[in-house]
Structures are given as C-alpha cells and as structure tokens.
Amino acid sequence: MELFTGAVISGITIGILYGLLGFPIVLLYKCTGVANFAQGNIATFLTFVVFVTMRSVGFGILPALGVGLAAAAALGALLYLVGLRVHADTADHVNILMRTLALYLLLAGVISVRWSRGEPFAFPTVFPRGALHAGLIDISYQSAGATGVAGVLALLFWLFFKRTETGLLFLATAERRDIAQLLGVDTRRLTMIAWVLAAVVSLLVGVLVAPTNLLAANMMDLFLLYSFTAVILGGLTSLPGVFAGGVIVGVIGNVVTVYTDDDSSVIAVFGLLLLVLLVRPSGLFGDPSLKRV
Amino acid sequence: MPVVSARAKSRALPYALMAIGLLFPLGGMASGRLLDVLTLGLIYAMAAVGLDVVVGYSGQLALGNFGFVAIGAYTSAVLAGRYGLSVWLTFPCAIAACAVVALVVGLPMVRLPQLGMALGTFFFAYIVSLLLAGQTLKRWTNSTDGIPVPALPALGADALTPYRLYYLTWLLLLVVVLLSVRYAVSRSGRMLRLIKHDEIVASVAGVDVNQAKLWAFVFSASVAGIAGVVFAQAIGFLAPETFPAIESVLLVAMAVVGGLGTIAGPILGAVAFNVLLELSRTAGSWREVMFASVLLAVLVFFKGGIVGLLELAAGWLHRQAPVQALGSRAVGLGRRLRGLPRPGPGAPPATVPPAVVGPRVVDQRGAARADPPDRAADQILSVRGVTVQFGGLRALDDVSLTVERGSVHAVIGPNGAGKTTLLNYISGVQRASAGTVTLDGRVLGDLAPHQVRRAGIARTFQHPSLAPDLTALENVQLGTLGQQRQSVWADLLPLRSTRARERAGRRDAWQALEQVGIAAARAQRCAGDLTPAEQKLVDIARAIVARPRVLLMDEPTAGLEEVDIEVVARILRQLNRDLGLSIAVIAHHVGFIREIADRATVLDLGRVLAHGTPEEVTSNTEVVDVFLGHEHV
Predict the structure, then answer these.
(1) CATH number of the CATH domain containing B516
(2) 3-class secondary structure for B228-275?
(3) B291 falls within a domain
C-alpha cells in the first residue's frame, strides 16, 4: 500500500509537469490550430542553452536561467517567423503538422551537432537536496519544488487569461478566430506571443525535468508523447483539462512502472491513449456533442 | 498550389511509371556501394508510396510507417531464421502481420480526425523501437544484439546478388505503384480525397469516413511490410538501432519533398534522399540540419515538392492551360457515356440553359400547388422535441418540424436561430440531448451521417463542399457510395463487378448532373474551377444521385447573384415536381422562399416561432419583428 501511495504521489508530481508541457500545446492549438510536435525539443534545446551558459561562461544556475529566458523568447518568436508565419493560411493540416516536425528535426539536428557529445549530463537543481517527510512517504524537494513551480505557473496563466486584456483577447481568438480578426484583433501578434509563451514554459519544464532525467538530446521524447496524451485526454482544447490529463497519465505510468517495468509502463500509456480515442475521442473534458464522424 | 496538385493527381500513373522507368537502367549502370544505396532508395520508395495513399490522398498524417517496415523485416527474419520458413513465404506473413497490427492500432486512431492518427502513429513508432530493444520480445528479436537475416534463395542460385536484389525490389515497387495508383484513382481514392477536403461533408455524402481512413492506413502498413522483407534482405542483419522512431518521420519527409498525393513524388523523394545521404556522408551531423531545413523550405514555399516543381517547369515549357490535361481524358469517356440509355422514366429534360427561366417558375409553382390534399397530408419526415445545448446556450429548444411528402418546406429565421444546427442534427452530424427523427414512419436512432444518408436523407451545404481537385462528375459519383457495398480490395483489382459498378455510378452521376442543368463540358472540369452557382448545383446533384427520400438544403442561395438564385429555385421546383422529391430548405431570401416553398417554419433563438404557408409566416408581425429587429415596431 505504501508502494502504491508513493507511486500515486510521485505520479501526480510528474503528471503536473506533463500537463505543464501540454499547456502550451493546447494554447497554440486553440489559438492557431497548430499541434506543435516540436514542443519537447524546444525544451531540450533551451535547457542545453542554460547548461552551456553555466559550463562555458561560468554563470550560476539563476543567471543562466535568465539567459535561458531571453533565449526562449527569441527562439519562440524565431520558430514562428521561420516555420509557421509564411503561407500558413493556405496550407492544409498535414503541411502544418509536418512543419512542426521539421522544426523538431531542425532542433534535434542542432543539438546533436553542437552539444550532445558526451551526454547524458548531470544538471543542477535549484532546489535543496533531501526530502520532505510527509507522514509515511518522502517527497524530494526537487519534486515538491517542481510541482510548486507548475502550480504557480498555472495560477499566473489563469490570472493572465482572466484578468488581462491580452489574455482575454487570447480566449476570444481561441473561441472564434475569424470573428476576432473581423473585430480588429491582431491575431498575428497574439500568435507570436503564444509562441514566446510556449517556448518560455518549455524552458521551465526542461529545467525542472533535467535534474532527475539527466540532460540528453532525447530527454523529452517520451515526455512529449505523454504530454500529448494528456492533451488528448483533456479534450484538446481545455486548458484545465490538460493538467487533469497529465495527472492521469503520470499516475498510471508510475503505478505500472512500480509493479512491472518501464517498458510496460510506456505501453500502458499508449494503451490509455488508444482507449480514450476508442471510447471518447473528444477527451474526458472535451465536448462530445459534435460527432467525430 | 491547387491547380498544380490537381494536375499531378489526375496524372498519377504516367508520372509514376516515368519515375520507375528512369530507375530501371540505373541498376544496371551502378555497382558496389551505389547499387546498395539505390536498392535502399527503392525500398524506402515502396514504403513512401504506400504512405502517400494515407497522407497525400486521405490527408491523415501517419508518422509510424517505418515501424511497420521493422515489423515486416523482423517477421520475415524470425520466421525464416528461427522456424525455417522459406523467405518467399514470409512475404505474405509480413503483410498479414502488418495489416493486423495496423487494424488494431488504427481503429482507435481514425476516430479523432487529423491529430488522432498523427499522435497515435508517432507514439506507435516509439513503442516499436522500444519493444525491439527491450526484453519482452527478446526470445525472438534477441534485443539489442540483433538477429541475422537468412538470405532469399534466388531462382537457380543460392544467394541473391546485389543486381538481382535491385531488380526484385524494382519489380515489387512496380507492383506497389500499380496498386497504389489504382487505389488513388478508384472509388476508394475519390472517397479519400473528399475526406481530405472535409470529413463532415464526406460522411454526409455517404462515405464511412473512419472505415475509409482505416483501410488506407492498413494498405500503407501492408506495403511497408513488403518493404520490410526486402529491407531485411538488403541489410542482412537486424538490430534495433536500425529502426529508430524518427525514421518514420523521415519517411514522411521524403514523400513531402517528392510531392504528396502524386505517387511519383514519394518515389523521387525517397531515391533522392538515399543518394544524397550517401553523397553527404562526410558532412557528419550537419546533414541532419540541412535535411530539416530543406524539408521546412519545401513545406513553406514549394508545397508541391519535386513533382510540383517539375509540373511548373513543364507548364512553362508547353504554355498550356493547367487544367486541360484532365479534361481530355474525361471528355472521351463522357462522349461514350452520353449514348447510354437513361434509367427510369422520371428523368427530366433539364438541359434548358440557366438564365432563360425567370417567369416560368411561377407556373411551375402553381402546378405544384394543385397536389391532391390527401397526399399533402402524408408525412415523410418528422422531427420531434429536439434540444441541443452548447455549454450554457440552448441552440435548439424543443423544436419540432414536419415535412409533408412531396412538398418543399422552408426553414427560416435570423442568424443564430439554430437552423443549421437543426439540419446538422437531422443529418447525424450533431448530437442532441433530446429529440427523434422519423423518416417515412421509421424512427431513426442515433445514426452516423453516412447511415442517415443510407436511410434516405441527403443534404447539401452552405459552403463549398466539393473536393476541388476532382471533376464535377467524380464529385457526384461520390454520392452513389451510400448504396454500394464493396470492399476496398475489390477496387484494387480490375474485376468485372468493379467496372460494372463504376459504369453504373458514372451513368447515375451523368443523369443527376443533367437534372440540375450542368452541361457535359462543365461536368468534366475540376470542381474548384466552377462558378459558385455551378458548385451549388453540383452539390445538389451529389445529394440527389442516391435517390434520397428527403433532401435537406442549407442555404442554397447563400452568396449567389439574383439571376443564379432563380436558377436554383427552378431546379428545386423541377426536382420536387418531376421526381416527387420532398425538400427541406434553409433560406434567407424571402423572394426565394415565396417562390419555392409550400410550407415554412420560422425559428428564432432555438425555438419555433411560427408554422404555415410562406405568405402566412412572412406576414406574421412577430416574424417580421424578428427579421427586421424590434425597433421597427
């Protein structure tokens, strides 16, 4: 039972991170119709930027994070301008999806050329070592901190979307892009902001994941699949749903790992994805009334 | 882009044969390493061509097909090496293994449009590489240590020489290409192209969308299985690192760079990729960055890929009108078909050119009014108590409507009244929290759109809903699918039944086009090149070709000029009078409603506001308020 409770709790903490990476995926999908397969590699790329800043320039983790944030904003804007800005209106969704996969390959290529020799690398954590003793189980400061950061970010996003003008414009655009455009919303500017936000969140996820997973070119491969599964579970367009989906994926993945092995755990999550598509393709929190024909 | 791709698709076979023809002498000229590279190129080409059917034609991104190459390769190597099966016999086994796996994992994926297959197959590729390297299947795959591949015994010799392997691969590629082209231009391929254009429209036109997507996926996986067996022969030893998940993405990239939806493009893309990969071996890791950049450039600037560029070049050279090529082939067929007898006595001589009709409409309406009263009282379609909720908004609130047999029933109301939602509900696109549909005394349950169509309710759309790269005739032929029950696999073979069905579908389509007054020459143009009014009429033809019992129409006059509205009104009247077709039509245009409708129902804010004859409801003050705004009172 202790084993089970531990697995569930660490599943929740990692699940919130799946949700956190899934969040910008949903945001971009809602606002621009782009399902961004490059999201995971953006995280890896930016985490490498932070890592290299520390190793080569000799910065500490916090100043290096500052550099990383600036790089994130620049990279987000750059990827949008290079990959998704031009001739996107006349492109079909296969074309758009493949563009994000081209960005995926591009980032992976640059990482492997420049940085990945000698991987995996140990990545420092901003949180203290040791663990929090809560009753029968221990939670490491690293996981607790990661969960805390994710929670704070979720709260900030909530405030941003409900309380700021730009945030409300986002929601309006996500609801009816055509009408928002007619009403004079500069949807291209919003799209640019969405990409910058997506890159910044990716950086934070990467930095939170790297200390436990070790920094490597393929660090986010499985993570991306899990986050996308969370997105589908959450109903594709639901911002709170993706966190719930992430927690479900995290808990199921962790519990299966604890009782069997890692491979079975991945297969279980794949099975969960197929099951949801089969039984409820609109996701647990999506609107099932429009039939998926 | 649409024009270029339309041409390429219509000429898939000659282009593909040209590409393959060029590859035939290459094998004789090359030797050593280059020959091996070319053989690999052909193998990738095979998998990429199969993939094109799913990605290029049905518009579903499949990112796991190299996983099926792996399954094919391992199935062959394990069955031959461990169980002593002849390598030749492993071909059908590999195909079957891939088909079964594709069927099982594909079934859930097709249920979520677009992203379901993209994500599902991306995940699937990861699972395959995980299982190959893991312990679960170690007994067969030997995990990371890998397994040797028993050599294919060539006829008369012990081992296959590189030349023989090249030409065996070439031959298999030829078979795969012929089957894929057949798939692409057959009934099934036309369904896929309509699905790519709009899944909802396809299902309302009678296509079982999920099934069509699934079969295309299974086809591509089976082809990848064949490629896998040859791949195993080419590399001689199987290890997990040969099959990384990302290889599947590269496979799609090859098809994209070559030109999706052309069959020839994926062949060129795959061969070019493998040759360039070999030539750039010294470039080290930078070549990955280069390939990704080329891929991105193609996706952004040259959506047609290599084939698209060749088409452009050919267009400049010949200075010919882009759409002409397709027409020439279809015209010949049309001439032959026009001589065929027309089935059924009800076919009207509807070849009066548009624009001449204005005043006659009134007479026709008078005639229709003279229907015997007992017939008019008979209900063909009855909708009861429909309630549809969108979040906090009630789009439809306990709405009921009855269409009398042989009548034209108008549904009118301001924007947001719920008219289209009601049509969506009846045609099976929209679920409701309450409500029933009764067609001719039979209660229809919760049916999928293509089942509603099969039951006898056809429908047209407000927005352009034809596949723009198919001809008007081919679009109308798609409407006959609801009646046909034939497997995809029969489509691939030139069976007598297949051809007979094709002829029958074509004949019905010609008749339907004639009934809506589309001239034969226009019927052979790509739908994307027709005028908006013509597109509406073709949409109507696609709906009536299946001889529905009720025709639902969503704003047939939207976006049309006055003169074209009259044409549509006349056609509707003719269909109603000559075929006895019952019609429910959403309309805004009050003149149009008065001209064509026998009865009208007014909706406002999801509720029924009034029922009656067009004159009654349009003179009802409450209705006038709703239409003109309450300030007018």
Answers:
(1) 3.40.50.300
(2) HHHHHHHHCEECHHHCCCHHHHHHHHHHHHHCCCCCHHHHHHHHHHHH
(3) no
Complex ipTM, two decimals? 0.94
Q: Which of B107, B128, B299 best tests the A interface by mutation, with the highest count of A CBs <10 A? A: B299
In a domain, B315, yes or no: no
Same domain, B24 and B157: yes
Domain boundary among B215, B248, B279: B279
Residue A285 covered by a domain: no
CB contact under 8 A, B136 and A112: no
Long-range Cβ contact pairs of A170-173 (< 8 A, separation 24 or more): A170/A27, A170/A31, A170/A194, A173/A31
Nearest residue of A to residue B136, measured between CA atoms? A263
Residue A290 lies in a domain: no
The CATH number of residue B262's host domain is 1.10.3470
Q: CA–CA separation, B571 vs B592, rounded Å?
A: 12
Radius of gyration of chain B (CA): 28
Judged by DSSP in three states, A208 sits in helix
Q: What is the mean pLDDT of chain B?
A: 84
Chain A residue whose CA is closest to B296:
A102
CA-based torsion, B347, B353, B355, B359: positive or negative? negative
- Most B-contacting residue of A29, A105, A182, A280 (CB-CB within 10 A), to test interface: A105
Instruction: Determine the Cα–Cα distance for residues B248 and B365; give it in Å rounded to an integer.
Output: 61
φ/ψ of B428, rounded to 5, equals 90, 5
Q: What is the pLDDT of residue A136?
A: 64
B621 and B518 inside one domain: yes
Instruction: Name the residue range of residue B254's domain.
Output: 13-279
Does one domain contain both B265 and B403? no
Residues B402 and B511 in one domain: yes
Q: Tell me the two tokens of residue A85.
A: 């800005």
Is B130 in contact with A90 (Cβ distance < 8 A)? Answer: no
Domain-located, residue B457: yes
Domain count, chain A: 1
**Nearest CB partner across the interface for B288, out of A86, A87, A112:** A112
pTM of the model as a whole: 0.87
Strand order in the sheet with B550-554: B457-460, B550-554, B582-586, B408-412, B599-604, B607-612
Question: Total domain count for chain B?
Answer: 2
Tens of pLDDT, residues B189-239? 989 999 999 999 999 888 899 999 999 999 999 999 999 999 999 999 999
Asked if the structure places residue A286 within a domain, the reply is: no
Question: Is residue B435 left, alpha or beta, with left meaning phi > 0 and alpha meaning psi from -120 to 50?
Answer: left
Tokens of B333: 């067929």
Question: Which 3-state string (H, E, C) describes B58-89?
Answer: CCCCCCCHHHHHHHHHHHHHHHHHCCCCCHHH
- Among residues A11, A36, A34, the alpha carbon closest in space to that of A224 is found at A36
Cα B580 to its chain centre, rounded Å, is: 31
Tell whether A262 is covered by a domain.
Answer: no
A77-126 tens-digit pLDDT: 999 999 999 888 888 889 999 999 999 999 999 999 989 888 899 998 88
Residue B107 lies in a domain: yes
Nearest Cα residue to A218 out of A94, A88, A117, A108: A108
Instruction: Give residue A127's domain range.
Output: 11-217
Q: Which residue bears the tokens 């308020």?
A: B625
